[in-house]
Design brief:
Layout (H helix, E strand, L loop, with lengths): L2 E6 L2 E7 L5 H10 L2 E7 L4 E7 L12 E2 L6 E5 L7 E9 L2 E2 L2 E2 L2 E9 L4 H11 L2 E7 L1
Antiparallel strand pairs: 1-2, 1-11, 2-10, 3-4, 3-11, 4-7, 5-10, 6-7, 6-10, 8-9
Length: 137
């Protein structure tokens, strides 16, 4: 069972990869680590932050998709009607964009630090973009 670590705005979160459910997305993410950038608040997706990923060039097919993630579910949108992105819900969320609902690849679940997700999300909402670093655990 492989894991990744997300460091966002001074917080550390560990996530378990869902290799059986989204094997190609997990493999694509692992091959590009470490990944760095900034997260911003997700305007259309409720209590979530998102990381624009077009510059990272992760290619993955649609797999294990949902538009109704739970807190701590990591969704990767591989592009199409909107840009490539990583959605990190910290509360109630429905994955959406200005063109409507999006189906994201549910490829990981935060298993360590879930109790701090709301704090991280509110920091992004009220203080603006925060640095993110994703690395293998």
């Amino acid at each position: 069972m492989k894991s990744i670590v997300l460091k966002i705005g001074g917080q550390r979160f560990a996530a378990r990869l869902l290799e059986a459910e989204a094997p190609r997305t997990c493999e694509a993410f692992l091959s590009r680590l470490p990944i760095e950038g900034k997260v911003i608040h997700a305007r259309w997706s409720g209590e979530s932050v998102w990381f624009p990923m077009d510059p990272v060039t992760i290619d993955a097919p649609a797999e294990n998709q949902t538009c109704h993630p739970s807190r701590g579910d990591l969704l990767y949108y591989p592009g199409g009607v909107s840009e490539k992105e990583l959605l990190i819900p910290y509360g109630s969320a429905i994955f959406s964009s200005k063109v409507g609902l999006l189906q994201g690849n549910h490829f990981a679940v935060i298993t360590e630090g879930q109790e701090r997700l709301a704090e991280m999300g509110k920091k992004v909402l009220w203080e603006g973009a925060q640095k993110i670093r994703i690395e293998e655990a």
